[in-house]
């Protein structure tokens, strides 16, 4: 984004009432590039089909694993991150389930059937760490399937896990610390292992002590509260969510730190280290939470307020090509296109507009610019590139880098954008 626009955004970085006006004036003055104004539902659908088709070509139905990857994709069979019920797969399934529901409405139930077969083969179970949001995030897939098929067994394991958490809630400190111990017998570092996979031990991850968790955890709790009518799930999620916000929310810049290790870190330009995918997880997580919160829920205005502030601030950091760089406040330090963080933020704008929480005139140009950037990062084969690999901070990215969590985020964005365009079409008909 140009220096002129950045200065305009600085005037409302606290998300004040004039944010929309400033953005519109800048847009009208030509300071913000007009992009993707002609995007159509057909184009959006074609993009999602190409990306999902390529991704499924990498899937092994016998193992329920994505196996056709480059070595750089970190899908190692010994890595806890690549557990088939872990967060990497869960983030993909969240987006894939949304797209599958849309595809079914359009006459294609192939994707839903495939997701159901995968979930059945997994027996609706989870990765091993029941208190860790990364390992129960896949519960979102089971909830989506339950809403589609109304089979109680689809969410029985999820309820058992969450009831255990409610009965024995964690009380660990939220400060981030990776615990490493040496065996008194061998002198080797000890770690958690499950089915041949290595899981690092971070005690605070028994709660939501890192930004990513706000995408992985609370939307599942709020959704389960809705489908079961059990208010305990909503009360717990609300309580824990605000503990995390109190910890990681930066009131000065209206952004989220990734975790407590980043409070005092600074970029070469003096700005705070705000990781695009980390804050993207929060933005998309907030959008998903709002989708599940009842309109009359007493705490809902607090969620809407922090969501609006965050999205106003992020709009000011978007670059002229539609992307957010890996380091949000220091784009020059990692000057790469990055699709995972960008797609998560784009979905948050699309969902916020769709829900009426974000002003459409203000933020639709941000969304469309991001979508144009994302589509330009897709290879002719359908492979989504420019994905920062599994990490916890800004890092370099290459056009060949891909990962399934970014595909999930793109499908979330595309599905919501398709629905927004459907609404526009309906409004045009009614106006006629």
UniProtKB/TrEMBL annotation:
The lineage of its organism: Bacteria, Pseudomonadati, Pseudomonadota, Gammaproteobacteria, Alteromonadales. Gene3D superfamilies: 1.50.10.10. The keyword Membrane does not apply. GO terms for biological process: carbohydrate metabolic process. It holds the Pfam family Glyco_hydro_88. One of its GO terms (molecular function) is hydrolase activity. This is Unsaturated rhamnogalacturonyl hydrolase. SUPFAM superfamilies: Six-hairpin glycosidases. Keywords: Hydrolase. It comes from the Bacteria. InterPro entries: 6-hairpin_glycosidase_sf, 6hp_glycosidase-like_sf, Glyco_hydro_88, PolySaccharide_Degr_Enz.
